[in-house]
Design goal:
Cytochrome-c3 Hydrogenase, chain B; 2 domains; 3-stranded antiparallel sheet; 14 helices; 39% helix
Length: 494
């Protein structure tokens, strides 16, 4: 599906408007708009302008290094990469079943990661738009403005994030880029003192989470029809679910549904993801464009993340979050909610769910166990680890050689799954809010609001090495173009 609103016949005659950088997101990206003489938007695209290349430079490293190395992809969601890689490495060493304590420790740190990341995004990055308005004064449309006018909300966000980071620190040793997962299990037990310290605050954390859901829900419902129509696009959805259809964030099976809620596939093993998902490339982005092979590249793109998970699951196994899910589904008349701004509502439902799950795990006696590693191991040639990261379904796939060195790696991160959807939402917002108008900063912020709804982690998502053209321009002292050379991905010069 094209991201062109009205494909221009002669692009040279169009004005080019650039939003760079996209603000209040993790990583670096830009949006380009092409407009005609009447400011009608003819094209809208999201470009990822940084390249990380982790798939390449972890080649040749020993497999046991991978869970530590790949979390350096990001400082916001390192635990997600750490655990996905850990699950893949478990398979390489033959530890397909962890000890009960090891699995629960991984789940605990995973819930802490999602809680802190959801809090960061909602309160620090998105709340300025929601509280002040999308086209409000840029001088106050930021976290400082939130602190000044809504100090209680700002403090709530800080404390929620702090608690999630303390969960991570207790298990992995550090809040950011610690270690925990090792081949076949975990490297550190949780002490009773650490458990008790986390338990002391969990009731308050749960109350803050309930308040956050109420805030996001009330915003969505009180600002209709805007919240239902802003950047809204029907789409397919992909997520993990449990065998009984419940929401699952750590270890489930793949379910895909179409825009009407019909099943595309269900209970698919993550080990067979290559049979169901392929990745296309474009010459204007380092980020790939995944699609469902059962449908095809044109219409098979899909969304992942909180909106997909809450849309896809049959129920949530914690009572407070399930109560909120039912209200969410009632708003959608039992069907699929497609509005990007509904991501915020779904995100806070998951935040509450994580608080409830953390409480349950801290009350579980097995969380203090010391049997942490599955010792019955043998080496296999590959491993695939899939997890529901903060931003959506995350795939880590590694192949190793006879020396235990990584021969090949494929990472499909959450933001990559949402690539086409973000472009489609940008196109919709540009058409509805910008076309034919004078393009001021407040107006252009509508584009960024649509992107931020997806909570993209752009630095995690850039892996399409060798697919973009290399362009070199020579300009004179007055800025005039003297010469231009373009080398395409096939090695030919244009």
């Amino acid at each position: 599906m094209s991201t062109d609103i009205s494909p221009p016949e002669d692009r040279s005659k169009l004005k080019r408007i650039v939003i760079e950088p996209v603000s209040r997101v993790e990583g670096h990206g830009k949006v380009t708009l092409l407009a005609d003489e009447n400011n009608a938007i003819r094209e809208a695209r999201l470009h990822i302008v940084e390249f990380r290349g982790f798939e390449r430079f972890i080649q040749g490293r020993p497999y046991w290094d991978v869970p530590v190395v790949v979390q350096r992809l990001c400082g916001i969601c390192p635990v997600s990469h750490h655990l996905a890689a850990g699950k893949a490495i478990d398979q390489i060493v033959g530890a397909r079943k962890l000890t009960p304590t090891a699995k629960k420790l991984r789940e605990l740190v995973h819930f802490g990661q999602i809680l802190q990341s959801h809090a960061l995004h909602f309160f620090h990055l998105s709340s300025p738009d929601l509280l002040f308005g999308f086209e409000s004064d840029v001088a106050k449309r930021n976290i400082i403005g939130v602190i000044e006018k809504y100090p209680d909300i700002a403090l709530q966000g800080v404390k929620l994030r702090k608690y999630g980071q303390e969960v991570i620190r207790a298990i992995c040793g550090k809040r950011i880029h610690g270690t925990g997962a090792i081949p076949g299990g975990m490297n550190k037990a949780l002490t009773s003192a650490e458990r008790d310290a986390l338990l002391a605050d969990i009731e308050q954390v749960t109350e803050w989470a309930r308040a956050a859901v109420e805030l996001s829900r009330n915003y969505h419902l009180s600002n209709q029809p805007m919240t239902c129509n802003f950047g809204t696009i029907p789409s397919n959805y992909l997520s993990l679910v449990r065998p009984d259809g419940a929401l699952e964030l750590y270890d489930g099976r793949l379910r895909a549904r179409n825009q009407d809620g019909g099943t595309i596939f269900d209970q698919v093993s993550d080990q067979t993801y290559r049979n169901h998902i392929r990745e296309a490339v474009r010459n204007w982005s380092y980020m790939k464009f995944p699609f469902l092979t059962d449908i095809g590249e044109e219409t098979g793109w899909y969304r992942v993340g909180p909106l997909a998970r809450v849309n896809n699951c049959d129920y949530i196994d914690t009572p407070l979050a399930e109560e909120e899910r039912l209200l969410f589904k009632e708003h959608g008349h039992g069907g699929m909610l497609h509005a990007p701004l509904a991501y915020h509502w779904a995100r806070m439902i998951e935040l509450l769910h994580c608080a409830e799950k953390i409480r349950g795990l801290l009350d579980d006696p097995e969380i203090l166990g010391t049997d942490l590693v599955n010792r019955e191991q043998h080496q296999a040639g590959f491993g695939i680890g899939v997890i529901e990261a903060t931003r959506g379904t995350l795939f880590h796939h590694y192949e190793i050689d006879e020396d235990g060195l990584v021969r090949k790696a494929n990472l499909i991160v959450s933001t990559t799954h949402n690539n086409q959807a973000m472009n489609e939402s940008i196109r919709r917002v540009a058409s509805d809010y910008l076309s034919g108008k004078e393009l001021t900063e407040p107006l252009l912020n509508n584009i960024e609001v649509a992107i931020r709804a997806y909570d993209p982690c752009l630095s995690c998502a850039t892996h399409a090495v060798g697919k973009m053209p290399l362009v070199v321009e020579l300009r004179g002292p007055d800025g005039e173009l003297v010469d231009r050379l373009q080398k395409n991905s096939d090695g030919r010069f244009a």
